[in-house]
Automatic annotation (TrEMBL):
Pfam entry (one): DUF4267
Alphabetized InterPro entries for the sequence: DUF4267
Record's protein name: DUF4267 domain-containing protein
Keywords tagged on the record: Membrane, Transmembrane, Transmembrane helix
Residue spans crossing the bilayer: 9-29, 49-69, 76-94, 106-125
């Protein structure tokens, strides 16, 4: 029987993975709008190379999280979540350093940091304590 904690962690990881896939696709198909939602605006003169790099990074990250979740590779999932914290931390700092940043644009990056830390630690600790952890 799965606990409420296991179900909640699974759901949060699932939402995180799908959110990253969505953000990645958005950066690839609507780079200007995605850039504004990210928290910065850079005059690129129509060259969206940065946005495409960001898009494929997030799309890849979301797909990896989902693949590890659905294949029950919980230790690897925990390691990926923890090691990837450098991405939202750097994103947070980039937005914060932008001259006209909006505080509200920092919250998604802060949430990503907290989710990555909490979920990553859960999967690592749970994996070492209970080898029979099962997804929904």
């Amino acid at each position: 029987m799965k606990t409420i904690t296991q179900k909640s962690i699974f759901a949060l990881t699932l939402i995180t993975g799908f959110t990253l896939v969505f953000i990645g696709i958005r950066f690839l198909i609507a780079p200007w709008a995605a850039e504004l939602a990210f928290g910065i605006h850079v005059n690129t003169g129509g060259d969206y190379s940065f946005q495409y790099i960001k898009g494929i990074r997030d799309l890849f990250s979301g797909v990896i999280l989902l693949l590890l979740l659905f294949t029950r590779q919980y230790r690897a999932l925990g390691l990926i979540l923890l090691s990837s914290m450098m991405v939202p931390v750097t994103d947070f700092r980039v937005v914060l350093a932008h001259a006209d940043f909006e505080t509200a644009k920092l919250y998604p990056h802060l949430i990503a940091i907290l989710l990555g830390l909490c979920l990553g630690l859960y999967y690592l600790v749970n994996n070492s304590k209970n080898k029979n952890h099962v997804a929904l």
